[in-house]
Amino acid sequence: MSVDEMEKRIVRYGDLVPCRTAFIDAHTPGSDRKENFTIIGGGVSEAADQHVHIKETPGFNIGAAGQPPKCRNSLHTHRTAEVFFVLSGRWRFFWGNDGTDGEVTLTEGDVINIPTGIFRGFENIGTDYGMIMAVLGGDDAGGGVIWAPQVIEDAKDHGLVLGENGVLYDSNKGAHLPAGIEPMRVLDEDDMALFPKVTTAMFVPRFVARYLDMMALADHQPVTVIGQDGMLIDQPGFTLEFLSAGSVDNTAYSTDRHEILMVMRGHWQVTWAGGQTVLAPGDVFAIPPGIERRLQVAMSGEASLFRVCDTDDEAGPTMNFFSDNRPHQ
């Protein structure tokens, strides 16, 4: 495959196109400055103007969220997996029906795998603009977000209504629900009572992996973070591996799976028959099946990246972590 063909499969961090109207809380104070990025696949954006860098999906979606200090993403839950790693900044993740059941602080390189059936949100608690990268289960992640009732009510007070068709309508711009389209159903008290209460002590050991721990384990070989015998439990329709400079030896390899490389730190050189490229922090490279390539660190110093591959697992809630009675719309 030529360099030009492969370059079309690389999304450079500096080329990312943000959307500031992606979700129902786009006008809600405290959440109105966040930026959403859809890198691979359609993502979960509710806005028609969301830019998609690579439309082909490999069994999962890749996205990102960028937020200035003190900006938060409102409480929501997903029908499919949602896995984040912190590219930059310091972030507080919180969960529960009102966001107070538990919380954990993540710093650069840390991973959090948030299971389905739990309301979650996150906030940049650092001093600078921060970015978290996301892997979302399934080829079609659209329509997979369920908002907490208070989020929908707050949004309505600021002119935004989400239709049952999954589309946002902004009355500030003269838009209203079309004839025949009802507002998205709001979960009632009985629905909310079905969601489990999960403490920090229950959550963190099973769903958070720390960067320094992964670096130590990746001294001689890649570390499986999510997947069979991985550090974190789940079967979300993809595997997540962590690689450091000690994990690779420039040996040629190929796979029948889609492989997505997401650089955390350092510069990485990827070589294939027909060309090569160098990836920098925040770059995402979607390598199709059957391409023989070599992977090595391009410069001295600390280097790390995440590698995501599709699997034959279902993309939905394949494991019931905390409750047998979680609601599904």
UniProtKB/TrEMBL annotation:
Q: Which GO terms describe its molecular function?
A: metal ion binding; oxidoreductase activity
Q: What class of enzyme is it?
A: oxidoreductase
The record's annotation in SUPFAM superfamilies points to: RmlC-like cupins
- Name the Pfam families on file: Cupin_2
Task: Give the Cupin type-2 domain ranges.
Answer: 69-132
Could you tell me the superkingdom of the organism this chain comes from? Bacteria
Q: Which UniProt keywords apply?
A: Metal-binding, Oxidoreductase
Which Enzyme Commission number(s) are listed? 1.-.-.-
Matching entries from PANTHER family are given as:
OXALATE-BINDING PROTEIN
Identification of the protein by name: Cupin 2 conserved barrel domain protein
Organism for this UniProt entry: Puniceispirillum marinum (strain IMCC1322)
Which lineage?
Bacteria, Pseudomonadati, Pseudomonadota, Alphaproteobacteria, Candidatus Puniceispirillales
